Amino acid sequence: METAKRQAIQTGKRVEIPERKGEAFTLYANPDGKTLRMELHTEPIRVKKADGKGFTPIDTTLVKANGVIKPNAVKGGLRLSAGQDKNLLTSQAADATASITTTSVLPEPRLNLFFIHRSVTELVIRSFRGQRDGLGVIMCGAESLLITTRP
Fold first, then answer.
1. For 20, which DSSP code?
2. Tens digits of per-residue pLDDT, 87-121?
3. Reduced to 3 states, what is the DSSP secondary structure of residue 123?
4. What are the pLDDT digits (tens) for 8-48?
5. Domain boundaries, the chain
6. The whole model's pTM is what?
7. Kind and range of the H or E element at 5?
8. In angstroms, rounded to a whole number, what is the distance separating the alpha carbons of residues 57 and 46?
9. What does the alpha-carbon distance between residue 6 and residue 29 come to, in Å, rounded to a whole number?
């Protein structure tokens, strides 16, 4: 913190204090070298990196990796089916895990900006909303399932 304060005095601009930021806040040293400024957000704007060292901005872009489809960087371990299994989605946060499964094997989904599974006929869910924790909106009709993230 002292390094950031000295840098703020030298540059005449506020300086971020990296060791004092969190998922929904950022702390800065002000140019006077004595006061601090904290910017608070109502929801996370970044998440811890996989190695636990530092943060990365939230990125809800869906990517296929290691046999699952998942967002690049969100809070919680959201995994979506890449097909050929019955586990539509799994979400993990802290010590809890939740899953939605189907009674039949899922086909490979179409993946563009959206996650779409065709022929999901026995799924009961109609809609579900999440925030920047990785899950956007799930809409399920009689013959398809669409998962999309907020812009």
1. G
2. 888 887 777 888 888 888 888 876 654 554 444 43
3. coil
4. 999 999 999 999 999 999 999 999 999 999 999 988 889 88
5. 2-42, 59-148
6. 0.64
7. helix 2-11
8. 4
9. 9
